[in-house]
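Database export, one record per block. Field names are fixed; values are copied verbatim from the stored entry.
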Amino acid sequence: MQSEEWVHIVALKSQALVWSASGGVAMHALTQDAVRDLPGLEKCEGDALRWGLKALGARMDGVISDQPATYGVGRMYAPHVQAAARHFKQGGEGRAAEDDLLLADVCNNTAVFLQHVTVSFREAMELFTQSLDIRVKVHGEVHWSVGDSYHGVATAYESFGKYDEALKLIKKGLAIHIKVQGGHTKVVGRLDVRERVARDYEIMAGLYRKQGKYEEALEVNKKCLDIRVEVHGEKSQSVAASYHQMAEVYSSQGKTEEALVLYKRSLDVITELLGENHPYVGASCHNTAEVLCKMGKYEEAMVFFEKSVKIFIAVLGKDHPNLANSYDGMAIVYQKQEKFEDELRLHKKCLAIRVRVYAPDHPDVADSYKKMAQVYNNLGVVYASQRKCEEALEMHTESLGIKMQVHGPDHQDVALSYTGMAYVYCVQGKYDEALALYKKSLDVNIKSRGPVAKSYIGMAFVYQQQGKPKEALEMQKKAAEITSSGQTTEVPTS
């Protein structure tokens, strides 16, 4: 096909894409044809390339991360954006700034979709970074779109659990947006600059909370809330999001009553505005459940967790971190109720999702392994008390394996598994095996400055059972010396 003819056809198809996006109707036939032609975009140059990018831009611009009805379109077009982005990287210099900026816009929008919906964090980072590089090259550092790109890259680092790097970048974006605002109300890129500033504050507050800097988080949250009330009024999705985030901080501080009031206020507003089956509603249900769990209201908490799970599966699918978080919350409820087998089942579901969507060194992956190790340990204790010794040893062995993987051999939690296994052997009357494990726990506790007295007490019990009163008394004295001295590290003095 001749280049001019291709340009004309793609122009028509691009218009069809715009019509479809603006009307929210089923795709026009031309639009469907455009899907088939777009893979050839990387072979195009000049006007053909420009029109192809406009076609992609029209579609991805209509894909909104908080509007589930648009997700199917995003999944269809995102691969074409990624192909175009790779082509631009290979194409070198000589392109018009207009073409570069078209690509920057569509890369940024697609990155938001990949990050929040398909949880493709590495691909999102690549597109955010490419968008930032283009915008800085064309506009320089002080431009609202450059601030947007810093915002995007910061959220990508947050997804990887790299909070310090994310904080540096979001502060850059915030500084740019404040400078662009210049004390005046401006709408740029179809968004009020004040809301851009508020979004930067929102990300910054979330990062402070994850770092345990709760006062800083609340201070920034309040700045975000004040802006949004001024711009949008009290009853808006943005204001509800700010209440939600402030509630997260209060929850982290243990201020459950304050948190619950704000979560319910946020939930009521977004449910009225967005309907029941929406990811934001699911997030509010999840966090409301967490607070109820902290308050000891386990049955109520489980109702809200189950609502969040139902929403996340329906809207985000079965491999999304939000769903993993809700499984984790349900597992905690079961743990509080001492329903350890149900707890283990939910932790396994949670871990399976996290290892698929996160890097191995992500904090949430480590958190899942630690919790599974603890529930195996708890099951070991339960089975031992029921004289189910083989099952108990199996659970403690699973726990030990995870702890070794997460912490290495010289950690207090590893010593705890040794003492748990030693107790099971005591129940079985296998005192030699029990003594060997108590000695292992002692070595680890000394190295890690852990609860040494517990190891001595265990060894004393074994010596008693073996008819060795002298050795038993020696161990009891060492344990008593530690506990009576009030040493918090419990390391023996001799």
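Remark 1: Residues 105 and 131 are 7 Å apart (CA to CA).
Remark 2: The first strand starts at residue 187 and ends at 188.
End of record.
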